[in-house]
């Protein structure tokens, strides 16, 4: 037996994995499970992007590139940020990594000393606290309330800031809740962090997956003076259905970007050369694919959320962005299954739905919100309808 490090031992495997793995196993046994677990678009990457990567391979882009991405890609990112945020960045303020998850990891590894704190509003993406802990930091959870649309409360935020606070993570639109911090809310957060040394890590991976004409709000739009205190994290995975390509990026203060590149130079080196070429096409080529995908997500969102709200014991806010519904299922807690087991939390409900209804949902507890479950609508309308009617049958059996 290899004796593992404390670091390896304390790292939690993705808590959402258990249900997903079980659903997968059932499917492999020929059981018709309807999956709402997907954390990625179900669309194929648009073909003009694929063609660019194939062309790049044929043209001989098979060597190392600069560690933090090619100059051409950095330039494409700078242009896209100009277009979407109206912000100007220089090439030494941009770094390209192997997915936005890797971008976040490089940031935490570059800013945290043992015991340093990072404030994370709940509900949160499961990897934030784990990555902070992996970098020897301490995740500090900022509780929010569903009644307030999961908005971080500026007073509660202020109360959590200590001399050890290094950063706060903002993820708007949010995975898992689909909520977005509006301009007024963003301004209040900006007012709290202004004048402190707290870095704002703005995970904007869903910034173009917004519905009903809602406009994305960056903290730098409402508080441009925070520029030296904000790092923007973004990528192509969600916007262009490119999860497998593994390209994400950061834009921020040069000192941080330089540290991230030094770290990357001793770990992964550059992100894949021909994937970088595909990303240039994604960011600078025809953007109509994004609108088309958002249009399809919008129809599914309405179908799923309306259907959920019609189920007994379940209420669901209309998500503003991303592709997840985050229904509150606590009205079902306390009830009994036909087998006599009690539904007590998001895990037991998810377990019951999987076994009885053959519907896979992700428990909210690992996202910091046990009253909810996460249901992705990155799946077809037929599956959504079928899943909803199966849930209705299973919920009717509870007493
Ligand atoms: C999917 C996701 C990411 C990471 O995406 P990559 O595929 O690593 O680029 C980061 N943050 C959130 C909130 C996500 O949902």
Helix-strand blueprint:
Layout: H1 6-10, H2 17-28, E1 34-35, H3 47-58, H4 71-85, E2 94-97, H5 100-111, E3 117-121, H6 127-134, E4 138-142, H7 154-160, E5 165-170, H8 183-193, E6 199-203, H9 219-222, E7 230-235, E8 248-251, H10 254-265, H11 273-284, H12 288-309, E9 324-325, H13 346-357, E10 359-360, E11 362-363, E12 373-376, H14 381-396
Parallel strand pairs: 1-10, 3-4, 3-5, 5-6, 6-7
Antiparallel strand pairs: 2-8, 7-8, 9-12, 11-12
Helix pairs in contact: 3-11, 4-11, 5-6, 5-10, 7-8, 12-14, 13-14
This protein binds pyridoxal-5'-phosphate (PLP).
Pyridoxal-5'-phosphate (PLP) binds at residues 39, 99-101, 125, 171, 175, 203, 205, 235, 237-238, 243, 248.
Walk me through this protein's architecture.
The model has no long low-confidence stretch (mean pLDDT 96). The strands form 3 sheets. A 7-stranded mixed β-sheet has the order 2-8-7-6-5-3-4, with helices on both faces. A 3-stranded antiparallel β-sheet has the order 9-12-11, with helices on one face. A two-stranded parallel sheet has the order 1-10. It folds into 2 domains: 6-44 and 289-396, Aspartate Aminotransferase, domain 1; 62-284, Aspartate Aminotransferase, domain 2 (3-Layer(aba) Sandwich). With 399 residues, it is α/β, with parallel strands linked by helices. It has helices at residues 6-10, 17-28, 47-58, 71-85, 100-111, 127-134, 154-160, 183-193, 219-222, 254-265, 273-284, 288-309, 346-357, 381-396; strands spanning 34-35, 94-97, 117-121, 138-142, 165-170, 199-203, 230-235, 248-251, 324-325, 359-360, 362-363, 373-376. The structure holds pyridoxal-5'-phosphate.
């Amino acid at each position: 037996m290899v004796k593992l490090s404390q670091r390896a031992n304390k790292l939690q495997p993705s808590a959402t994995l258990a249900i997903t793995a079980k659903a997968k196993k059932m499917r492999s046994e020929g059981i018709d499970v309807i999956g709402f677990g997907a954390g990625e678009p179900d669309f194929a990457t648009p073909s003009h992007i694929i063609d660019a990567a194939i062309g790049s391979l044929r043209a001989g882009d098979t060597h190392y590139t600069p560690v933090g991405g090619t100059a051409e890609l950095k330039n494409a990112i700078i242009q896209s940020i100009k277009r979407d945020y109206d912000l100007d960045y220089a090439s030494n303020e941009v770094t390209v990594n192997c997915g936005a998850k890797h971008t976040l990891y490089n940031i935490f590894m570059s800013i945290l000393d043992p015991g340093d704190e990072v404030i994370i509003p709940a509900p949160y993406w499961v990897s934030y606290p784990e990555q902070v802990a992996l970098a020897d930091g301490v995740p500090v959870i900022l509780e929010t309330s569903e009644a307030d649309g999961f908005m971080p409360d500026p007073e509660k935020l202020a109360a959590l800031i200590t001399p050890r606070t290094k950063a706060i993570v903002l993820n708007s639109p949010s995975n898992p809740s689909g909520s977005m911090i509006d301009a007024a809310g963003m301004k209040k957060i900006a007012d709290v962090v202004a004048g402190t040394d707290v870095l704002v890590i703005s995970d904007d991976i869903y910034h173009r997956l917004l519905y009903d004409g809602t406009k994305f709000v960056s903290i730098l739009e409402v508080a441009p003076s925070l520029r030296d205190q904000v790092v923007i994290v973004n990528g192509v995975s969600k916007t262009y259905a490119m999860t497998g390509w593994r390209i994400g990026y950061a834009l921020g203060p040069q000192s941080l970007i330089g540290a991230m590149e030094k770290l990357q130079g001793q770990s992964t080196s550059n992100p894949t050369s021909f994937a970088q070429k595909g990303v240039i096409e994604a960011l600078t080529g025809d953007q109509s694919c994004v609108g088309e995908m958002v249009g399809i997500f919008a129809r599914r969102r309405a179908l799923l959320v309306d259907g959920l709200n019609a189920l007994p014991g379940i209420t669901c806010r209309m998500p503003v962005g991303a592709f997840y519904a985050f229904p509150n299922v606590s009205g079902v807690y306390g009830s009994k299954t036909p087998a006599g087991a009690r539904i007590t939390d998001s895990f037991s409900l998810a377990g019951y739905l999987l076994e009885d209804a053959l519907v896979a949902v992700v428990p909210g507890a690992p996202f910091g919100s046990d009253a909810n479950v996460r249901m992705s609508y990155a799946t077809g309308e037929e599956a959504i309808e079928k899943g909803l009617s199966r849930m209705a049958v299973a919920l009717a059996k509870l007493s």
